UniProtKB/TrEMBL annotation, chain A:
Protein name from the UniProt record: Checkpoint protein
Location of the protein in the cell: Nucleus
Organism (species): Ceratitis capitata (Mediterranean fruit fly)
Main location class: nucleus
Record lineage: Eukaryota, Metazoa, Ecdysozoa, Arthropoda, Hexapoda
Cellular-component GO terms for this entry: checkpoint clamp complex; nucleolus; site of double-strand break
Keywords for the protein's UniProt record, in alphabetical order: Nucleus
InterPro entries: HUS1, HUS1/Mec3
GO biological process entries: double-strand break repair via homologous recombination; meiotic DNA integrity checkpoint signaling; mitotic DNA replication checkpoint signaling; mitotic intra-S DNA damage checkpoint signaling; nucleotide-excision repair; telomere maintenance
Protein family (similarity comment): Belongs to the HUS1 family.
Keyword Nucleus on entry: yes
Automatic annotation (TrEMBL), chain B:
Subcellular location: Nucleus
Gene from which the chain derives: RAD1
Family per record: Belongs to the rad1 family.
Listed GO biological process terms: DNA damage checkpoint signaling; DNA repair
Chief place where the protein resides: nucleus
Record's keyword terms, sorted: DNA damage, DNA repair, Nucleus
Transmembrane segments: none
Stored SUPFAM superfamilies: DNA clamp (SSF55979)
Domain of life from the UniProt record: Eukaryota
Pfam families cross-referenced by the UniProt entry: Rad1 (PF02144)
Protein's UniProt name: Cell cycle checkpoint protein RAD1
GO CC terms in record: checkpoint clamp complex
């Protein structure tokens, strides 16, 4: 088993830190799944908590300047699956904020398996002496027989996917609505309209976004003749709010997909080859 | 409510009572604000009790919140503050302050315009929010209203020989209250034509005392008009209800007389000349 990755672009490194910080707000430990063409982080706090299921998808070839891995000896699809404490990893990476020269991630075996974070903290601008920080974050290697339990969630086939406006507006909005109503309905149409609806005995609140970009549409047989395709789903407001408040990344592009009465899929595209996903299950009103 | 009506037809909204469908001209109360900010600050300053009483007349809007029979807070917005203001006779209704406060804050921190509609007894108050810079986004809230009892009228006798009036700069007074002992039970305010001109004392549980004296020549005093010495104690928890209003105030008027009833006016910062202020009446503690 072998894993090494290196980052050199300061912007990428800062983003990586923000992503780990986002995960640490959602779960104590996350599952890191490393393969040749993808690195995944999955935060799935045990049932009962309000945290939503969130996973991060990284294309290592685009993201890391150097990347080597050797998975467990399966020829077709070599993998490494680790369980990583998010808070510790976040602390280890905190130096990435200061524009270091590089950051290396390595899977090492001291007395126990560790994810070693090696950061050269010499800032590019100043000429002071080299300062290097190395953190060993203890991780658990998940054996192959348990892999089926740690499968990466699949991006669902949504009936409608719309690109939503800036995160800042919607985060504040859902944060307020969660104080008034336990559930919120997402209702989208193929003409680029998204409605967020909350209804209680005391108040009815509807928020409308118009002229959104339609990213994908799946028309079923029954809907073929309809002028306008619609989809709606009611989800837990606290869970949704938690996803938005955990996001530490300055996101420009947020897309929201709806499967009628089943789930909502939120996707934040940070840049090519790196995205944060979340699935929110439907709840009955 | 055009937009919510379509949602009702789709079955996404279920409570028809919360939708208003009549024409504009039938509304008993319609108002439009180009900037929601000052109104929102005012509503937040009053959000210490759930029952808000709204009274609308041709002069403007008055929102009243009472805690027990000891504290009354009023938010006044004159009709001239509104870009559009239309009311039939006198309209009164009750609202949950927490809900209206959350609704007004939906687009937190972003400049918004607001329209309010009210059709009459039993109908909801409808708020329509539009962020100024985002044409494609809007929110409609309809909030259940209730009937209200009459509001107690507190009054200080303007003719009284002992009426003392002081105008203070808001930020300076806010600083003073920050420095006072927050755990104190009681707070004594003394106004006097002689020294100390303006004194705030706190009395704690274990007889700890702190006090601040402000001379009438101080920069923070804008007007000092005291005829006789007045001094009264107030419960600190009640005084602290004013803090949100105080934090947003540019100017504070403090009035009291020998009865000890304390009246405070908080002028809200507003770019225009518009008159928005929050007024508090606080009953004194009985002297033993």
């Amino acid at each position: 088993m072998k894993f090494r990755a290196m980052m050199q672009d300061p912007e990428y490194m800062r983003e990586f830190l923000y992503i780990v910080q986002t995960l640490s707000k959602l779960a104590k430990t996350c599952v890191m799944k490393i393969s040749m063409d993808k690195v995944y982080f999955v935060a799935n706090e045990e049932s009962g908590s309000a945290a939503p299921l969130v996973w991060v998808e990284i294309n290592p070839k685009l993201y890391f300047s150097e990347y080597t891995m050797q998975g467990v000896d399966s020829e077709h699809d070599p993998h490494i699956v680790l369980s990583v404490p998010t808070l510790n990893l976040g602390t280890a990476l905190s130096l990435l904020r200061n524009n270091p020269c590089f950051c290396k991630l390595k899977l090492t075996n001291l007395q126990f398996p560790c994810l070693t974070v090696d950061i050269d903290a010499t800032t590019k601008s100043s000429s002071d002496k080299s300062r290097r920080a190395m953190h060993h974050v203890p991780v658990d290697v998940i054996p192959r027989c348990d892999w089926p339990n740690f499968a990466v969630p699949v991006v669902p086939d949504c009936k409608l996917v719309l690109n939503m406006p800036s995160n800042r507006l919607i985060r504040g909005l859902i944060d307020k609505i969660k104080n008034l109503s336990p559930t919120i309905i997402f209702y989208a149409t193929s003409s680029g309209e998204m409605n967020l609806v909350a209804e209680t005995d005391m108040a009815t609140i509807t928020t409308r976004y118009q002229n959104l970009e339609l990213r994908a549409i799946n028309i079923s047989e029954g809907d073929k003749d309809k002028e306008q395709i619609e989809a709606s789903c009611s989800v837990d407001c606290k869970k949704t709010a938690l996803f938005f408040s955990a996001l530490q990344v300055p996101s420009n592009e947020l897309s929201c997909g709806i499967v009628d009465d089943q789930l909502i899929h939120l996707e934040v595209n940070i840049r090519d080859g790196i995205a944060i996903h979340s699935k929110l299950p439907a709840v009955c009103v | 409510m055009q937009h919510s009506k379509t949602l009702y037809e789709k079955g996404l909204l279920k409570n028809l009572k919360m939708l208003t469908q009549r024409q504009y001209s039938n509304f008993k109360f319609v108002a439009r604000l180009d900037q929601i900010k000052t109104f929102y600050t005012g509503i937040k300053a009053l959000n210490f009790e759930n029952n808000g009483k709204f009274q609308v007349s041709e002069d403007g809007l008055r929102v009243t919140v009472e805690e027990g029979n000891c504290v009354q807070a009023n938010l006044y917005i004159t009709a001239s503050c509104f870009a559009e203001f239309h009311v039939v006779d006198m309209v009164t209704f009750g609202l949950n302050m927490n809900i209206i406060s959350e609704c007004l804050g939906l687009f937190a921190g972003i400049p918004c315009s607001l329209k309010m509609f009210y059709k009459g007894d039993g109908a909801p108050l409808v708020l329509v929010l539009h962020p100024n810079e985002e044409a494609d986004i809007s929110a409609e809230c309809s909030i259940k209203t209730t009937n209200i009892d009459d509001v107690i009228d507190y009054n200080l006798d303007e003719e009284s020989r002992t009426l003392n009036v002081v105008f203070v700069r808001g930020p300076a007074l806010a600083n003073i209250f920050q420095e006072l002992n927050k755990a104190a039970d009681e707070l004594r305010i003394t106004l006097s034509p002689r020294q100390p001109h303006f004194k705030i004392e706190t009395l704690g549980v274990v007889k700890t005392e702190t006090f601040v004296e402000v001379a009438k020549t101080s920069d923070m005093i804008m007007l000092f008009n005291c005829r006789d010495t007045t001094s009264a104690c107030y419960r600190n928890t009640e005084m602290r209800l004013t803090h949100k209003a105080l934090a947003a105030a540019s100017k504070v008027a403090i009035k009291t007389d020998s009865s000890g009833l304390l009246e405070m006016h908080f002028m809200m910062q507003s770019e225009e000349q518009a008159e928005v202020y929050v007024q508090f009446y606080i009953m004194p503690l009985a002297e033993i």
